[in-house]
Amino acid sequence: MQLKNDLLIRAAKGEVVERTPVWLMRQAGRILPEYRAVRNSLSGFKELVETPEFAAEVTIQPVDILDVDAAIIFSDILVVPEAMGCTYEMIEKRGPLFPKTIRTEEDLKTLRVADPHEHLNYVLEAIKVTKRALNGRVPLIGFAGAPWTILAYMVEGSGSKTFSHARGMLYTNPRLAHQLLRMITDTTIAYLKAQVEAGANLIQIFDSWAGILSPAHYREFALPYISEICDAINEVPVTVFAKGAFFALEDFSKLNCETIGLDWNMQIAKSRQEIGPNKTLQGNMDPCLLYSSFETIERETKNMLKEFGPHRHIANLGHGVYPDTDPEKVKCFIQTVKEYGSVIRS
Known about the structure:
- With about 350 residues, the protein is α/β, with parallel strands linked by helices.
- It has 17 helices and nine strands.
- It has helices at about 5-10, 35-40, 45-50, 50-65, 80-85, 105-110, 115-120, 120-135, 145-155, 165-170, 175-200, 215-220, 225-230, 250, 270-275, 295-310, 325-345; strands at about 70, 90, 95, 140-145, 200-205, 240, 260, 280-285, 315.
- The strands form two sheets. The protein has a seven-stranded parallel sheet.
- It is globular, with a radius of gyration of 19 Å.
- It starts with 6 loop residues before the first helix and ends with a helix.
């Protein structure tokens, strides 16, 4: 099916576009009353993720309400460890909790390389339902967590400020870490390829905890596995978003992907210099800007667009939109990108 709005795909590929495309990480979620209504009708987050019709409904809400240039499938990066046999619970106001962690060779034996059609079929079905409902209006983004970030949760057992157990494993048992990363990577490649087959138009890899590793450890335990995923997913454009990994921008220039996501701490001009002219950049407004006045949002958004320039840029925040953000402020950001992102091309 031909897309009515293919700005995001063309920008990712480096083609000339009429204006800067815009979408937001975590755009489908708690900022929207419509999302909360669906969520409150269910037992919790996991039921929403695992029910294709409801996941599709909240995926499409930001397209209808916020007028973004892409939908991103409503899911979670932690569906991958669960599919591998390491289940999680989502605790309200606390985040994910893994009752059982992976810290020994014996623990590793309890895991499998997941078959996406068997263990993650609910996500694939949600993509198919969403694609039918979107009817070509905008592209649909599929995603997965980067192997290091997934390992961090599986070893730590929950979110953490330090991920000391996970980082400690890289020193005390690097062989086990690589074995686990291998299984996660094999699962992730199969999962992302299945997402593309189900209808995803682009893929994003989220390395949420990239920034807590030393540069040396990132180059040993993170980058090679991300690179392998990028090499494997050659059917659609791929974005790599590694939060906090400012030290690896030059390394990212060598990845076989189209787009590199920048967080709000990464300087635009310096990032462009290190990544080079052959990749599209995505980002990178501070999500806290959306707490400010409409005038400030307009001014800072225009400044961001000016600094990125009119080509090879996808406008986004430098991280997911925060749950207590006013949807009207989000609309202001999106509308400013659409209007000013056209002007700077003329």
